[in-house]
From TrEMBL:
It comes from the Bacteria. Pfam families: adh_short_C2. GO terms for molecular function: oxidoreductase activity. Keywords: Oxidoreductase. Belongs to the short-chain dehydrogenases/reductases (SDR) family. The keyword Ribonucleoprotein does not apply. This is Short-chain dehydrogenase. It comes from Paenibacillus lautus (Bacillus lautus).
Length: 263
């Protein structure tokens, strides 16, 4: 399997990073990348549009192209919480912000070589029995894992599927990917159902397994596929696809009216 920290043919790694979660000091590859500037870090609060815009503007100022964009940041909470813009946090960070980042980085992607976007989704979306995009910003019911979290990941995969044809005209390929069950911060925090914790500790994989799936989705056998949701390496149909167009329009409107309008 590919080492998730290994440079891809010398490509530069650029990460938008949460400043409250520093890189591990014992990871020699990460520390070496930071020292050599092959890894450049831009910090941002993804739930705050004003803060996020500052970081994205810095990327546009200092970088001249992007080959691969991994929208990997995400949240999972044990209760409903809301962003500074007033929307439920799972929807804001897991669904809306990846769209914002794509739109803001699109020009740099068009100048890159691979021109590929990988959105980190979750197979939790497969367990949703109902879905209404109108309720994503202000849900009235909360369930761990298969509630707002799963709905936000389905929303991410739905707009990924919906936007694919349009951005392919600009040479950009996009896919959403489930990295599998991994021992990450998200799978051990309050957003995980209590009964799942022992299963997580016994059977979930090291995060490098999930990272490898993301890299495989970008550089492996699915390179010519766009708009697909990859689960265990295979294109998997999405439920509630009939809502994809209106969902994308809703997120696009949020971007235009709230983010792009920030001066």
């Amino acid at each position: 399997m590919r080492n998730p920290h290994q440079n891809l043919n010398g490509f530069l790694d650029i990460k938008i990073h949460n400043p409250s979660a520093p890189f591990p000091s014992d990871d020699s590859l990460l520390q070496e990348g930071l020292s050599s500037q092959q890894l450049r870090v831009y910090t941002a609060d993804l739930s705050d549009f004003t803060n996020l815009q500052v970081s994205l503007d810095q990327i546009k100022k200092h970088e001249d192209h992007i080959d691969l964009l991994f929208n990997n940041a995400g949240v999972s909470f044990g209760e409903l919480s809301y962003s500074k813009q007033g929307r439920e946090m799972h929807f804001e960070v897991n669904s809306v912000v990846p769209y914002v980042i794509l739109m803001e980085m699109k020009e740099l992607l068009e100048k890159g070589s691979l021109k590929t976007v990988i959105n980190t989704s979750s197979n939790a979306l497969l367990y949703l029995k109902q879905f209404d995009y109108h309720t994503l910003a202000s849900p009235t019911v909360f369930k761990k894992l298969v509630g707002p979290y799963a709905a936000s990941k389905l929303a991410l995969s739905l707009w990924t599927q919906e936007i694919a044809t349009a951005i392919q005209k600009d040479g950009i390929m996009i896919r959403s990917v489930c990295p599998g069950a991994n021992k990450t911060t998200i799978t051990k925090n309050a957003g995980m159902p209590r009964l799942m914790i022992p299963i997580r500790n016994l059977f979930f994989s090291h995060p490098s397994q999930g990272a490898s799936r993301l890299y495989e989705a970008a550089l492996g056998s699915s390179q010519q596929s766009t708009g697909v949701f990859l689960n265990k390496g295979k294109a998997t149909p999405l439920k509630f696809s009939s809502q994809g167009s209106e969902l994308l329009s809703t997120i696009e409107l949020i971007y235009k009216q709230e983010f792009a309008a920030i001066s």
